[in-house]
Amino acid sequence: MIRWEESDFMLNDEEKNQVLTDYQETIKFLNREYKSLMHPTFSHHSSMYTFTTEILSGYIKKLGVKDKDVLTVTASGDQILNLVFHGAKKIDGFDLNTNAYYMTQLKIAALKSLPYEEFINYFSACKSFEDAVFVEKKVENNLNVFDYNVYQKFSDKLPEDVKLYWDLLYKEFNYDGSKLHDSVCISSDSDTAVFANDYLQNATNYEIVKQKIDNVNINYYVKDILQLHTLSKKYDCILLSNIYDYIVSDWYGVISAEDFNSYVQNKLSNLLNENGIIQLAYKYHYKTKNVAYGSTLKKLFASKYKIDVNESLNKLSYKKILVPSLIKEYRKDKEMDCVYLYNSKKR
Ligand SMILES: C[S@@+](CC[C@H](N)C(=O)[O-])C[C@H]1O[C@@H](n2cnc3c(N)ncnc32)[C@H](O)[C@@H]1O
C-alpha cells in the first residue's frame, strides 16, 4: 500500500496519479519475469542510467552548440548537463523511458545543492571519489551510493512530481540507497563518469554548470526516436545517442538500416534549422565490434585487419568523430569509438 502525507504535495489528483502509475510501473518492471534472460529492453518504465556510457567529452564540444537549440536523448541527464556546460540555449530532452526524466531532474537538483565530490559520491557506484576519477583503478562498490541522508539535503529542490516518485522508491527500499540504486539503475559505467563528462572533469567545470543551469530552458518529451518527426519545432543540433544500436538490428531491431536512413533524410531532417546537424549513432570500438566478441581467432584477425562494419551509417554521415574507447579490454589497443554525424546542408 502506498501512502504519503497529503499536505506534503501540491500536485493535483491527475499529476499525483501519473507519478503513482510511473512508480508502480517501475516496480513492475523490476519484478518482471525472466529478467536476466532478456536483452536490456527499453520501455516507458525500464531501468535508468545514472551516467552516460559514451565518451561525451570526446565529441559534444566539437558540435558547436553555444547559443543553439538542441534536441537530445534524456537518458541519464549527462547529455543535457554537458550541453548546458557548452552553452546551449534551449534543450529538449526526448526518451522512450519516463524514468529518464526522473533521473535527470534528480541530477539537476543534486547539482544545484551538492558540492562536486559529494555529487559524484552520491551518484557513482565507485567506492570513493578517487576511484571515480582514476578510471584505471579497480572499482569497488560504493555502499553509500544514493545515500538517503544526502538525498534529504537536496530533495526539497526537486519538482514535486519528481520528489514524490523518489520518495516512494526510497520507501519501497526501506531508505537503503544502495539497494535502491542497484535495483533501479544501470550504472556499470560509473568508473568512467568523470572522464566521459566535461561538466564533471573538475570542480571548476561543475561550478560553471551550476551557474548556467537556471538560465537554460529545458523541456522533456516521452517519445520514441521514430516519433520525433511529429515535434513541431526546429533545432540546430539533434543527439540520438546510440539508440541506433537497439532499433537497427537483425534480431531485435524494429527498422532496417535503409529505412532508418530514409527516416533521417525524409522526416527527421525536417526538424533541422539551416546547417543543423544530427548525431546519428555512437559506435563503441567501432572497427572491431563485429569480431570483438567472437572467437580468439577472430580477435586476432581483427587486430590485423580493421573492418569498418557500418556501411549504412557511412552512406548517411558526412563526418565521423573518433573518440577514445574506455572499454578496458580495448583501451590498451587504443581502440576508438565513433560518432556519426549527418548535416542538413546539400552534400
Ligand atoms: C540507448 S540508451 C544507452 C545509454 C547511452 N549510450 C548514454 O550514453 O546515455 C540511452 C537512452 O535511450 C533511450 N531509448 C532507447 N530506445 C529508445 C527509442 N526507441 N526511442 C527513444 N529513446 C530510446 C533509453 O530509454 C535510454 O534512456
Explained architecture:
Helices cover 39% and strands 15% of the residues. The protein contains 16 helices and nine strands. The longest helix is centred in the first third of the chain and has 18 residues, at 13-30. By secondary structure, the protein is an alpha/beta fold. It has a seven-stranded mixed β-sheet with strand order 5-3-2-6-7-9-8. The protein has a two-stranded parallel ribbon with strand order 1-4. The chain has a domain at 1-46 and 96-218. The model has no long low-confidence stretch (mean pLDDT 86). The structure holds S-adenosylmethionine. S-adenosylmethionine (SAM) binds at residues 42, 49, 52-54, 73, 75-76, 95-97, 100, 224-225, 241-243, 246-247. The site of S-adenosylmethionine has 19 residues, from α11.
Keywords for this entry:
347 residues, alpha/beta, 7-stranded mixed beta sheet, globular, binds S-adenosylmethionine
Describe what is shown at a glance.
The chain has 16 helices and nine strands. The chain is α/β, with parallel strands linked by helices and 347 residues long.
The biggest sheet amounts to:
7 strands, mixed
The chain-level mean pLDDT equals: 86
Bound molecules: S-adenosylmethionine
The proportion of strand residues reads 5-15%
Write down the overall geometry: globular
Flag low-confidence runs: none
Strand order of the largest sheet: 5-3-2-6-7-9-8
Q: Counting H and I runs of at least 4 residues, what is the number of helices?
A: 16
Helix content: 25-40%
User: What order do the helices and strands follow?
Assistant: HEEHEHHHHHHEHHEEHHEHHHEHE
Structural class by secondary-structure content:
alpha/beta
The termini sit apart by 59 Å
Number of strands: 9
Rg to the nearest angstrom? 20 Å
